[in-house]
Amino acid sequence: MKAYSFPPPRITDPQAFGRVAVLLGGTSSEAEVSRDSGRNVLEALRARGIDATAVDGIPALAEALVQRRFDRVFNILHGQKGGGEDGVVQGLMEAFGTPYTGSDVLGSALSMDKIRTKQVWLSMGLPTPRYLRLQRGADVHAGARELGLPVIVKPSCEGSSVGVTRVHGEADLDAALALAARYEGELLMEQLIEGDELTVAILGDVALPSIRIVPKGQWYDYHAKYVADDTQYLCPGLEGVDEDEIGRLALAAFRAAGCRGWGRVDVMRDRATGAFHLLEVNTAPGMTSHSLVPKSAAQAGIDFQHLCWRILETTLPEVRHG
To answer: What are the ATP-grasp domain coordinates in residue numbering (predicted)?
Structure first.
């Protein structure tokens, strides 16, 4: 197995971080997952002696920033529209000059929009499944004929598999479109890649071991991600040159989308050809008991408390990893 070597933490005194807000919850469709993630992060930081406090949602953070109650923010809000992955809260923190974990305004906003992330990747020659933008009221059947079944229909700006349907037959297209249309923003129809579902965590400038996801059901949906205990996570998901290749691809995709600090890149591997296809970047991935970044970090020798410390270190500009 590939060896991962990280330098020791540059910061050893928890007081060096000052007062830390753990930003969680909010009002997005992923708010409850965020609260679960945030509780875990808060516990881990406090266990390492860091002065950390939970802050639920963007209005509460805005009030705290006005009052200068915190020195930095560990952002574990998920999603958009009251979540912390669409660039809005990043702009707020930039305006107050408050350091924060994760990607900046550009990287967050771009990665939240799957269509525009694909446009950037394709412009740079990075592989991603063929797709169509669906306007509301569009002829979904014509789109499916153009791409060829099977396809995936989903909102362009949601995460955690919210509003996503795998469509193998034309009779299911209208219901898939109706589900995706419950959510704001553009809709996306994407070629369904049949094969292995993989994900690669990024920490600083390092791609951590890949994870191959094997759900008991047909696919890795919201239930398999956050509820079921029978999903298998094989880490590393690949071996040898394949593991090296997916790591390089994930890092290239992460950087192309303007991301920084930490995150996760989701990838499909075509069963027939072995080719990798980029799906999306998560700029504030889950940190729940079912989440994938902690599993990958553990495989690289980084336990959960150490992972949270490392992520918080990225808010200090003098600290560099990789």
So the answer is: 118-313
> What pLDDT score was predicted for residue 267?
98
pLDDT at 159: 56
Are 255 and 271 in a shared domain? Answer: yes
In the 8-state DSSP scheme, what is residue 170?
Answer: G
Instruction: Give the CA-trace dihedral at 77, 83, 86, 88, to 10 degrees.
Output: -100
User: How many domains does the chain fold into?
Assistant: 3
Within a domain: 289: yes
Contact 269, 195 (CB under 8 A): yes
CB of 78 closer than 8 Å to CB of 33: yes
- Asked if residue 280 belongs to a known ligand binding site, the reply is yes
Phi and psi for 217 in degrees, rounded to 5? Answer: -80, -165
pTM over 0.85: yes
Residue 229, pLDDT score:
67
Positions in the chain short of pLDDT 70: 1, 158-161, 217-229, 318-322
75 annotated to bind ligand: no
In this structure, the answer to whether residues 79 and 220 fall within a common structural domain is no
Q: What are phi and psi of 32, to 5 degrees?
A: -70, -35
Residues 94 and 149 in one domain: no
Per the structure, the complete domain to which residue 254 belongs is given by 111-127+193-299
Catalytic residues: 30, 160, 291
CA dist list (Å): 245 to 130, 212, 267, 276, 314: 21, 14, 12, 9, 25
Provide the CATH number for the domain around residue 177: 3.30.1490.20
SS3 label, residue 188: strand
Query: Dihedral (C-alpha) 12, 16, 19, 21: value to the nearest 10 degrees?
Result: -60
